[in-house]
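fyi for ur records
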Amino acid sequence: MSLEKQDVFTLRWGIIGTGLIASWFVSDLVLDPSTHRNEPNLIHKVQAIGSSSHQKGTAFAQKHIPSTSTSNGCSIYDSYAQVYTDPAVDIVYIATPTGLHFTNALDAIRAGKHVLCEKPMTITTSESEQLIAAARAKGVFLMEALWTRFFPIAKELQRALHEKKLIGDITRVFVDFGLDMPLEKQKDGSRLVDLRLGAGCLLDIGIYALTWARMALCGAKEDEGEEPAVRSAMVLKEGVDEEATVLLIQQKMGRQAVCSASYRYKSGKVFGRVEGSEGCIEIVGGAASKPESLVIRRKDGMETVRDFSFVGWGFFYEADAVAMDIRDGRTENETMPLEETVRVMRIMDEVRRQNGMKYPHEE
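which gave:
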């Protein structure tokens, strides 16, 4: 049943994993929504933290949850199972390495918890489909945490391209996400090099490039009829992709998207460009995961720069959307639907197939 707008809704989170991405997410959860965004009727509370040790979980909470926060004093568990069975937890945020997502998310779903699982949701399409089936059977909310889709800049880009048609008919898209993290410099057992943990740049950062391309090519319903042909290349080191390039081709519509990811070199500030018959839009930011501005250049000489700066990391946009869905009884999100998770997983499966890249459990 939906709540009236004036009612305050509190969503109680269980956090699984205490790495970097979890620290960013929790830091945003504890921000006061009434002070920096227009969602004063939503409260996010970190109810529980699950880690490999009580000491590690306590240190994480002390560092990232202010003493003045309503989340201060949350439960600390030295196992994930205790988070899943905590009756005070409404939703579990999965922030473990990619190779653990499937098991962690499935365990939470089976315990009757709603789940927000970091991207990529799983390593393979089959695993994602199994999670979706389990969540639907259990009647719980499930979403892949592709936070970038929820930024105002992402929504404005889609409006500019597909509703306002500011650059006319879309012809080409270029998106690059590069980081300076060469594999030979990583420690043994790192998530970047250990295939058991889901190592590889395609699943780690290439998914962002594919996401921007999907938003640019497929923002309108009529665009979704033509699934793109996929061509690709990878640079593999001991079975791990250090670099990946994916070409998405919509032959009937005369469109192409070039999506690249690399651990060899950091991308420049202009990481994306959408070209059309009447101009182009550049996407600017520190990384493809965290965009900052749009530069619209039309062939008639008009140039517009739009800034989309905000407080914090920006994870609160997706957290707010999840809270509103759960508040209103929805088990799937419109901005990041489960079918979109499956579509992108299929593309990544095909890229790995073309380049002979497999994870241990696929052998």
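The chain has two domains: 9-147, 152-309. thats all i got for now
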